[in-house]
């Protein structure tokens, strides 16, 4: 898995070539492996939040879901295995997938305190305490576009409210999206999953209508794993999180990348279904310090 051949498929290569960054992608790809190094294991054990991405087994829709707990609930239990103590809340759209052995799953651990993030993708196996993931792809990303949040509180007494389901965004949800400085994006391709982070100044995600979201694809590590997936399979899932109240907005649908004449990229996402859950995450983070890499939001 550490070879460049195993990392990129035709979708990623097509986007890399269009952006003129294939050589850079090959260089960056050398850092991708299938093992969990000691520094990565130490990072995982400090995290109170893990975001997961996968396709639901019943209808194939792609979702991104959060799982939170006391640091140590995620840990490396071998050079190629990550174990998680805990399960998704009942009713989460990915709960059935995470209760099924062999599910391809993607994870990202993001630490706002240090602006570090780590991605681990692989195959899931259920355990008595939760689940484990046999790692197939492990790598870190740069701190670009991560808003710093210096501290958090774990609120074990916070209980998730009743989820609200719909097939388009309400006005309040569109305002929530417009105020977001962070979201997570899950994609799939040929039985594998990816989940990535997107960040920017509030307003970088726009809602053109109750069933459409758009956002710019800022310059990153040149791998184009997410946009490459969308190029061959448009299914995607978004997770927006209120970092204070723990409310989540999960959206599933399809994404398409549009390239402008000046070389910029913008993703258009069509909403199929949304689930809003008050108090879903028992974490309360301190106010954000915007990333110095955030571009200005254009009108």
UniProtKB/TrEMBL annotation:
Please name the InterPro entries in this protein's record. Answer: Pyridox_Oxase_N (IPR011576), Split_barrel_FMN-bd (IPR012349)
Q: Where is the composition biased (Pro residues)?
A: 285-299
Instruction: Show the SUPFAM superfamilies listed in the entry.
Output: FMN-binding split barrel
Question: Which Gene3D superfamilies does the UniProt record give?
Answer: Electron Transport, Fmn-binding Protein, Chain A
Cite the residue spans of the region called Disordered: 278-299
Write down what this protein is called. Pyridoxamine 5'-phosphate oxidase family protein
Q: Enumerate the spans annotated as Pyridoxamine 5'-phosphate oxidase N-terminal domain.
A: 169-269
Record Pfam families: PNPOx_N (PF01243)
């Amino acid at each position: 898995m550490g070879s460049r051949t195993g990392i990129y498929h035709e979708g990623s290569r097509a986007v890399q070539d269009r952006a003129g960054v294939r050589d850079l992608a090959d260089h960056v790809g050398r850092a991708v492996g299938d093992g969990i190094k000691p520094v990565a294991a130490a990072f995982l054990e400090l995290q109170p939040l893990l975001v997961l991405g996968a396709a639901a087994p019943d209808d194939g829709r792609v979702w991104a879901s959060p799982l939170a707990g006391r640091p140590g609930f995620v840990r490396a239990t071998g050079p190629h295995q990550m174990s998680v103590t805990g399960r998704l809340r009942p009713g989460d759209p990915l709960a059935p997938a995470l209760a099924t052995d062999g599910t391809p799953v993607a994870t990202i651990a993001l630490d706002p305190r240090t602006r570090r993030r780590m991605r681990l993708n692989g195959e899931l196996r259920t355990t008595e305490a939760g689940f484990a993931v046999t790692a197939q792809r492990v790598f870190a990303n740069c701190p670009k576009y991560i808003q710093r949040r210096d501290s958090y509180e774990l609120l074990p007494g916070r209980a998730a409210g009743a989820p609200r389901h719909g097939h388009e965004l309400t006005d309040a949800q569109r305002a929530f999206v417009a105020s977001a400085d962070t979201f997570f994006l899950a994609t799939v391709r040929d039985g594998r999953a990816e989940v990535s982070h997107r960040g920017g100044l509030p307003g970088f995600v726009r809602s053109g209508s109750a069933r459409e979201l758009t956002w710019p694809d800022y310059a990153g590590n040149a791998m184009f794993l997410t946009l490459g997936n969308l190029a061959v399979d448009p299914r995607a899932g978004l997770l927006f999180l209120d970092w204070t109240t723990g409310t989540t907005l999960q959206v599933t649908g399809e994404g398409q990348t549009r390239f402008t004449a000046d070389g910029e990229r913008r993703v258009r996402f069509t909403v199929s279904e949304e689930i809003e859950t008050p108090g879903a995450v028992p974490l309360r983070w301190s106010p954000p310090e915007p990333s110095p890499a955030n571009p200005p939001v254009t009108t």
